[in-house]
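INTERNAL AUDIT FORM
Audit reference: QA-55
Scope: verify that the stored structure record matches its stored sequence.
Auditor: D.O.
Record contents follow.
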Amino acid sequence: MKKKGIGIILMAVFAVILISGCKRDVGTPEDNAVVEETEEETEDQTKDWMFGYSCPDLSDPFYQVLKDSVGMALENQGNPMMVRDAQQDADVQASQIQEMINEDVDLVFLCPVDPEQITASLEALKEAGIPVINLGVRVEETGLTDAFIGSDDENAGKVCAQDLTEKRPAGGKLVLVESPADAAVNVRITGFEEAISNKGFEVVRRIDAEKTETGIQAEIKSVLSEEELIDAIMCGDDQMALQVLQALDDVGRNDILVYCVGGSPEVKAVLAASESPMAGIGAQSPINMGKTAAKTAAALLDGGAYENEISVETFFISRENLDMYGTDGWQ
């Protein structure tokens, strides 16, 4: 039974991705805040601090919104931020961090391209006396950073599993779309699998999104040709889910529940369609992560108290509560 609305929405989503050079249609830190700030805003800083922000890929909406959130908070404090996009190249990131060292930045917000390869850069930052706040993906040598702030990825996978077990109490057959090379995705999938353990579910196919030669869409169509009775597909991130949804739309299947971790505007727009197979999202909040990172940085540089490890809340977004978060930006 092919739905009428979901195909149009998916075409629009992929058009946005192609036109923007991949995934740039995102919200700003003011959009869709999870909770209203109840604390007083940080007082204007009198310190003349310069910050650095280094991430793997600013075409990824998560890193873009995280950057905007951190940058806006620092701007409110009167402090500039030097932003560098490594374009998924660990060597480029190392060069850009050296540039930050040469510019004598006071602190670096770091999302590593490669948790191991970044070690030499961390050692250089340590030698230069520049503190590091590690964001998102944990570096291998944690002793070389001053704080880690990330999403509760395990819970993000778990809340998807909890919804699935409610919708399919008798269990069923599953497909997992994952990326073993991505530490954060691994934690999400592990949280999901642990929550469905011993509840009658069977994983009939694992698709490695980074190594598939034919692509996610072709892999999904292949699975459906071999296993018609698939109950659900769990995806490690939003972009995997969009590929899965396109494949399901191509073959006219809206009877399979699709879950993912993320919460980008593109995925929430698909979730909003009443006949979409998109069932729910283990939602992250790069906006809250960025605000937390800026507050931590100010405390660290000012000699105040701060937590050196913070797990930012993740939660479940479904069609029923989508109005709380909206579809025009991140939460």
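Auditor finding: record pair retrieved intact. DSSP finds ten helices and twelve strands in the chain.
Action required: none
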